[in-house]
Write a structure and sequence with these properties.
Number of strands: 0
Radius of gyration: 18 Å
Number of helices: 4
Distance between the termini: 44 Å
Helix content: over 70%
Largest sheet: none
């Protein structure tokens, strides 16, 4: 099947995860350059710092969608629900999980999401930028 119960949060997760390097970073570069110590870095390193800072934000924003997708993929009873009911069930599950488990679980999950996606997308953007630069030099 093309679209299962977790399709919508999967799409939103991917959209939000990419926002750091695609939408936020180009507009936050000037802000990052004003941070103490950044002026000593090369242009390339300042770009990476901007990408990373924005990828941290994007990773945090994509967290609920990532969890909703994972939960939906393992919850077959969602298949029989409308999209609206699925959405309500996902929100209730997310709120219930963090209400029950507490802020320590939320902090752990945010840290894990940042550790995975922020470094992944920052690295991806670094490779992409390097290849574009190499193609212009060729």
């Amino acid at each position: 099947r093309l679209m299962g119960a977790g399709f919508v949060p999967h799409v939103f997760r991917n959209c939000f995860a990419q926002m750091g390097i695609r939408l936020f970073s180009p507009h936050s570069y000037e802000v990052v350059c004003r941070l103490p110590g950044i002026s000593t870095l090369s242009e390339g390193k300042r770009l990476v710092a901007s990408d990373f800072a924005c990828s941290v934000l994007a990773a945090t924003l994509s967290l609920p969608f990532n969890h909703a997708f994972s939960w939906a993929a393992c919850t077959p009873e969602l298949e029989r629900m409308s999209y609206a009911r699925r959405g309500m069930a996902m929100v209730q599950w997310l709120i219930g999980t963090y209400r029950e488990q507490g802020v320590r679980l939320l902090a752990r999950d945010v840290g894990l999401r940042i550790n995975y996606t922020a470094f992944l997308f920052t690295g991806y953007r670094f490779v992409e930028r390097t290849l574009v630069d190499l193609s212009h030099d060729a």
